[in-house]
UniProtKB/TrEMBL annotation:
CDD domains assigned to the protein according to its UniProt record, in alphabetical order: 17beta-HSD-like_SDR_c
Keyword rRNA-binding: no
NCBIfam families membership: PRK06179.1
UniProt name for this protein: Short-subunit dehydrogenase
Alphabetically ordered keywords of this record: Oxidoreductase
Keyword Oxidoreductase appears in the UniProt entry: yes
Pfam families tied to this protein: adh_short (PF00106)
Molecular function in Gene Ontology: oxidoreductase activity
Domain of life: Bacteria
Family stated for the protein in its record: Belongs to the short-chain dehydrogenases/reductases (SDR) family.
Length: 270
């Protein structure tokens, strides 16, 4: 039985990693949480898990209808579901790039479009879209993934201006590299070219090293809770020291210097 005094949150992609820890943190903060996964997953205290494929319009609509039937309202949506893609930009087919955008960008839009009528009727609501430091900077061998996060940045900022007068706010959370399973939701380019083999392998090894030294998922979850509960929310929330550094780098340093620093950080041979 759902406590009607609790606010209702939806977290997509909540079966593991950042999504799971975020769902648990929201439950501890007093929300009743609905989490989603593509396959059936057992729920946890304060978290009801539902099946949803964000690339399927019917699946998203059914999800929102089910939450409304059980809870009667939706106060918070955290769009966390997403996948990665490792490889040179030239190495991915257009079909593979479309699949990535279908999950990371249009999946977010499907959920938002389904929940906005609910929030407008309530005259309140908050949408937290999970971005990344790669929504701020380029990343060799992550060109299409970085493109999806740049798209989410522009989409979210524009949407926030459109829905504020309905009592709804849209905010972005920008994690840095986070200690989650490296292989989790990561695809490889489907048309690999020998000319990129050495640099792609070097880039993958570097990424693994960054992940091992990255922030715990709880760092991101804590920022999501902050973004969700702020009375006067900011548009963007940096999650972790690395994210704050990257945001300052992009905001205050000349483009040429940023390019030089990124070249060095990515250990790209001169």
């Amino acid at each position: 039985m759902i406590d009607r005094n609790k606010k209702i949150a939806l977290v997509t992609g909540a079966s593991s990693g950042i999504g799971l820890v975020t769902a648990q943190s929201l439950a501890k903060a007093g929300y009743y949480v609905f989490g989603t996964s593509r396959k059936k997953v057992a729920g946890k205290p304060g978290i009801a898990m539902l099946i949803c494929d964000v690339t399927d319009e019917g699946s998203v609509q059914a999800l929102i209808a089910e939450i409304l039937q059980q809870a009667g309202r939706i106060d918070l949506v955290v769009n966390n579901a997403g996948i990665g893609l490792l490889g040179g930009a030239e190495e991915s087919s257009i079909a593979q790039a479309k699949r990535l955008f279908d999950v990371n960008v249009f999946g977010v839009a499907r959920v938002v479009n389904a929940v906005l009528p609910v929030m407008r009727k309530q005259q309140s609501g908050r949408i937290v879209n999970m971005s990344s430091i790669l929504g701020l900077i380029p990343s060799p061998y992550n060109a299409f993934y970085a493109s999806t996060k740049h798209a989410i940045e522009g989409y979210s900022e524009s949407l926030d201006h459109e829905v504020r007068n309905f009592g709804i706010r849209v905010v972005l959370v920008q994690p840095g590299v986070t200690r989650t399973s490296f292989e989790e939701n990561l695809a490889r380019a489907d048309q690999p070219l020998p000319v990129y083999d050495a640099e792609r392998a070097r880039s993958e090894a570097l990424m693994r090293k960054w992940v091992e030294a990255g922030d715990a998922p709880q760092v991101v979850a804590d920022v999501v809770v902050k973004a969700a509960t702020a009375k006067k929310p900011k548009l963007r929330y940096s999650a972790g020291k690395q994210s704050r550094q990257v945001r300052s780098l992009r905001r205050f340093m000349p483009e040429r210097l940023v390019d030089r620093i990124l070249h060095k950080v990515n250990e790209i041979p001169a």
